[in-house]
């Protein structure tokens, strides 16, 4: 069990910078998600940690030792691929034993470890099947068993669940989390699924254009996004722009919004973000902020309702509500949205 | 529509196989002038057993085809690895340059080789035949193996490397076994192309070393007997046996999903 450190890593493909000055650390036993749109560099970062790619600049350390020059086969990593990447000409047992064999572990000892690994991913008795005979979810479990049986220094997951359907994916999320906790493996997980990132990780790193724009605990990153990009990419946000005035923000239509964060200097323009589920049509205690808007569209999704609204000056707003009583706000209805000062997040950009 | 297709396929098969069946049948016909009515004999097979010229040429053809097949398959597979899995300057050019030799008439290739081999002092004979046949078989091998490569995902090798394989080990443990049907097919292709080859062989064979097609050609010019049919039948059965063995291994037509 080891930590992973990435220091000042940069990578350029041709003339296109893919990663710019990435420095971060992945503590022992932590589960970190790299989250970002495609092209943000998250997969490149994972492949640099794995050793499939050499960074142009910077250092990768696994367990304190510099492995920047060590090729992937010398790094003792466990990796799960988006396509499972099981060897189709080998049985499940042979697949799982592949890495053990490379480490000189054979015979009864190898069989015992393979058995344990298959037990861990809840596939005992599948040892003699061929990958083709397994369902997608089962193949995924074999891939996981193959990655963890070698007791890797770090577990790298490259969107391993994206090929599974929703129900199976949720099942595998639970499994993955259980196995990661049991094994205590330092895990780096690349995904573009925000919910997955929030549900699984201790830490979420949001990448944009080759930089980590924010990294922190899921709750922290979600509740306190630092930038517009982070606020819009992770979850939904309503953005309000106004001018700082007397410790509050006055919007263009004159509405004054209270915020608890640190505001820029008086007279500066600032963008505020409010999560759609933090707003409500019924005033609650402490909900000092209010804004008038008209319901434009209603989206009924069973347990959850979402509304698109518009203010008098044309600002688009979203509102998420629980379906408590099965009654919907009709389209065209004028409502007042309420939220508290602590749910007004001040954007840095 | 299906009915029409079946008839169409039937007609094709009739035109393909009837001449071959006639050729085989005539090997068992007593008349040296291919006259009917048919009267069964194994006479031509008996005289063939004593015809050293044809038998030697047949053996030469098989040896040459085997050597060509092995050498061209090894070289072609290595080339295919480079073209499919590596990026380097001029890769696309090389890939494109592989195709024209397939389309260039054998006569031109053969003449060019003859002149080139004469100039360089390589000359004619078995060694020249091997060089010529290998050169013309390699494009076929690269094409067949290259197609095989396309069905194998690159992340399989990456998975092997993540588990501790060096690139060489990953290739031998993962890619090569998956590529085996393609390589076998390529080897068979090279074997068939070499066995079939007349024009290049005609130019490059020496009086001491010629192949069966070359020998059959000179026999036809001198006047021939159904011994030709006999040896052709043997060759045909041999080739078909090889094809059937291949079909058993590679299961053509099966959709293989090599994830």
Pick out its properties.
heterodimer; A: 349 residues; alpha+beta; six-stranded mixed sheet; five-stranded antiparallel sheet; 8 helices; 19 strands; elongated; B: 259 residues; mainly alpha; 76% helix; globular; disordered C terminus
Neighbour order of strands in the largest sheet of chain A: 6-7-8-3-9-10
**Approximate strand percentage of chain A:** 25-35%
Summarize the biggest pleated sheet of chain A. 6 strands, mixed
Largest interface: chains, residues each: A-B, 28 and 20 residues
Strands of chain A, total number: 19
Into which percentage range does the β-strand content of chain B fall? Answer: under 5%
Give the averaged pLDDT of chain A, no decimals: 89
Give the fraction of residues assigned to helices of chain B.
over 70%
End-to-end span of chain B in angstroms?
A: 36 Å
Order of helices and strands of chain B: HHHHHHHHHHHH
Mean pLDDT value of chain B: 84
Uncertain runs of chain A are none
Indicate the overall shape of chain A. Answer: elongated
Q: What are the low-pLDDT stretches of chain B, counting only 5+ consecutive residues below 50?
A: 252-259
Helix content of chain A: 10-25%
Compact summary:
The complex is a heterodimer of chains A (349) and B (259). With 349 residues, chain A is an alpha+beta fold. In chain A, 24% of the residues lie in helices and 33% in strands.
Report on the structure:
The complex is a heterodimer of chains A (349) and B (259). Chain A is an alpha+beta fold and 349 residues long. Helix content of chain A is 24%, strand content 33%. In chain A, α2 (92-102) crosses α3 and α4 packs parallel to α5. The two termini of chain A are 39 Å apart. Chain B is mainly α and 259 residues long. In chain B, α1 (2-26) crosses α12 (227-250), α2 (43-50) crosses α12 (227-250) and α3 packs across α7 (126-150). Chain B is globular, with a radius of gyration of 22 Å. At the A-B interface, β6 and α2 of A face α8 and α9 of B.
């Amino acid at each position: 069990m080891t930590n992973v450190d990435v220091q000042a890593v940069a990578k350029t493909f041709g003339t296109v910078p893919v990663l710019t000055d990435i420095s971060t650390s992945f503590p022992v036993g932590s589960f970190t998600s790299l989250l970002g749109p495609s092209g943000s560099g998250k997969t490149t970062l994972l492949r640099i940690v794995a050793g499939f790619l050499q960074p142009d600049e910077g250092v990768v350390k696994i367990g304190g030792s510099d492995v920047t020059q060590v090729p992937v086969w010398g790094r003792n990593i466990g990796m799960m691929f988006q396509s499972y990447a099981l060897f189709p000409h080998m049985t499940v047992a042979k697949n799982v034993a592949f890495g053990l064999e490379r480490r000189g572990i054979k015979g009864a000892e190898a069989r015992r470890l393979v058995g344990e690994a298959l037990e861990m991913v809840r596939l005992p008795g599948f040892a003699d099947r061929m990958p083709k005979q397994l369902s997608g979810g089962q193949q995924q479990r074999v891939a996981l068993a193959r990655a963890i049986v070698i007791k890797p220094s770090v577990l790298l997951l490259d969107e391993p669940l994206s090929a599974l359907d929703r129900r199976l994916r949720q099942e595998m999320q639970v499994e993955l989390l259980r196995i990661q906790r049991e094994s205590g493996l330092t895990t780096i997980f690349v995904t573009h699924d925000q919910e997955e990132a929030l549900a699984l990780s201790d830490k979420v790193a949001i990448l944009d254009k080759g930089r980590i724009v924010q990294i922190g605990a899921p709750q922290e990153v979600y509740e306190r996004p630092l930038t517009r990009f982070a606020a819009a990419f992770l979850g939904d946000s309503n953005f309000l722009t106004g001018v700082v005035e007397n410790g509050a923000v006055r919007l263009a239509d004159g509405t004054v919004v209270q915020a608890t964060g640190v505001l820029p200097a008086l007279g500066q323009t600032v963008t505020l973000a409010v999560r759609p589920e933090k707003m409500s049509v019924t005033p609650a205690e402490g909900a000092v902020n209010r804004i008038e808007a008209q319901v434009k569209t209603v989206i009924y999704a069973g347990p959850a309702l979402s509304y698109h609204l518009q203010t008098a000056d044309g600002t688009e707003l979203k509102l998420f509500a629980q379906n408590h009583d099965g009654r919907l706000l009709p389209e065209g209805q004028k409502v007042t949205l309420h939220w508290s000062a602590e749910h007004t997040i001040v954007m840095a950009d | 529509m299906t009915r029409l297709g079946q008839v169409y396929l039937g007609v094709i098969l009739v035109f393909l196989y009837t001449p071959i069946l006639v050729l085989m049948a005539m090997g068992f016909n007593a008349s040296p002038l291919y006259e009917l009515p048919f009267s069964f004999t194994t006479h031509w097979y008996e005289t063939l057993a004593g015809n050293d010229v044809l038998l030697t040429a047949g053996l030469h053809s098989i040896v040459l085809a085997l050597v060509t097949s092995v050498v061209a398959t090894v070289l072609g597979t290595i080339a295919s690895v480079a073209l499919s899995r590596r990026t380097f300057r001029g890769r696309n050019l090389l890939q494109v340059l592989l195709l024209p030799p397939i389309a260039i008439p054998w006569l031109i290739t053969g003449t060019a080789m003859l002149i080139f081999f004469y100039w360089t002092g390589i000359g004619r004979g078995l060694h020249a035949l091997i060089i010529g046949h290998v050169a013309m078989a390699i494009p076929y091998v690269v094409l067949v193996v290259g197609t095989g490569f396309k069905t194998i995902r690159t992340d399989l090798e990456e998975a092997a490397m993540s588990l501790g394989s060096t690139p060489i080990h990953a290739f031998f443990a993962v890619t090569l076994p998956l590529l085996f049907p393609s390589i076998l097919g390529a080897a068979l292709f090279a074997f068939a192309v070499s066995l079939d080859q007349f024009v290049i062989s005609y130019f490059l064979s020496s009086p001491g070393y010629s192949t069966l097609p070359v020998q059959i050609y000179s026999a036809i010019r001198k006047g021939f007997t159904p011994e030709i049919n006999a040896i052709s039948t043997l060759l045909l059965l041999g080739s078909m046996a090889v094809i059937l063995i291949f079909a058993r291994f590679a299961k053509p037509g099966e959709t293989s999903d090599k994830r």
